[in-house]
Design a protein that fits this description.
With about 290 residues, this protein is an alpha+beta fold. It has 7 helices and 14 strands. It binds fe (ii) ion. Fe (ii) ion binds near residues 147, 149 and 220.
């Protein structure tokens, strides 16, 4: 059984095939990494990166948010991007630098990390694609509200401490098919949160050197510890995750026509039949020269 260990020249550690086979894109699990002292994650280098990235790739706001945050009323912090990073210790803010692979050095690091993940993920979910990296920079005590994300993700804690509250990917009492359909057709990632959900969460404490796998669309919210936090999120799609997105989108269309489609994942043969429809529509669009956004 393949196992990577720290100190053997690898960037990631504590990866093993049995864990991937049992949990990848189904349940969260922890890994390790050797990036905590990497120079690309120093604040001066991150300020430089934030200035090179297109402005639309930098999202930031106040970090003093409730767990349940309406995305249309998220408060700003009144600072520039560079000042937010420069003053991150005291400005009570949350920031994400998106698609850092647009920058060569960060892209190389992302690809090196994901090449290690792929040695294990391909066995259970082949076809890694759409690799993307995100760097989160946040003030002490910041909260990332309850939300879902569309990618397979490994969050690598570089500096400071985070507490991640992760909820089951398939619990349809707290995350409905309609929630997922809205998200995969363009709705904001934030979701309404109710206190009783907390009893169904699993809490993970992440310190520098720790990493955590987030299954696609597993709801979560995050609380920073008492220091500045920097995290590197390495994400990708696989054929399975792309198919799942297509199925949710198709189900939304079917629901619009008054139908009651089967839940994604509930019936493999129904999912296969629906994917055949999706692929047929794509082929027809391609034949007449229309683009599809996969
Ligand atoms: Fe997230």
């Amino acid at each position: 059984m393949a196992t990577l260990t720290a100190g053997s020249g690898n960037l990631l550690a504590k990866l093993d095939q049995a864990t991937f086979d049992a949990k990848f894109n189904r349940r969260p699990f922890t890994i390790g990494h050797d990036l905590s002292d990497h120079p690309l994650f120093s604040l001066p280098r991150l300020i430089e990166l934030s200035q090179r990235l297109p402005e639309r790739k930098v999202e930031y706001n106040s970090g003093e948010l409730p767990v349940s945050q309406d995305p249309h009323s998220t408060p700003r912090n009144g600072l520039s991007i560079a000042d937010t990073i420069r003053r991150i210790e005291e400005c009570r803010s949350w920031m994400v630098l998106k698609n850092v692979e647009l920058d060569q050095e960060y892209g190389d690091l992302l690809n090196s990390c994901l090449a290690e993940v792929r040695q294990f993920s391909d066995h259970v979910s082949p076809g890694m694609k759409h690799q993307a990296g995100f760097i989160f920079i946040s003030s002490p005590g910041s909260v990332t509200p309850y939300h879902i994300d569309p990618e397979n993700n490994f969050l690598l804690q570089i500096r400071g401490q985070k507490f991640v509250y992760m909820f089951p990917q398939h619990d349809r009492e707290i995350l409905t098919e309609e929630n997922l359909e809205a998200f995969f057709t363009g709705a904001h990632r934030n979701l309404p949160f109710e206190e009783w959900y907390n009893a169904r969460s699993e809490k993970f404490e992440l310190n520098p050197g720790d990493g955590l796998h987030f299954p696609v669309a597993a709801p979560h919210w995050v609380q920073n510890g008492p220091e500045v936090s920097i995290s590197f999120s390495i994400t990708f799609q696989t054929k399975d995750s792309a198919d799942r997105k297509s199925l949710h989108r198709l189900n939304k269309q079917l629901r619009k026509f008054g139908l009651r489609p089967s839940n994604v994942g509930a019936s493999p043969w129904r999912d296969r039949a629906k994917l055949a429809v999706v692929n047929g529509i794509r082929a027809a669009k391609a034949a007449v020269g229309k683009h599809d956004d996969k």
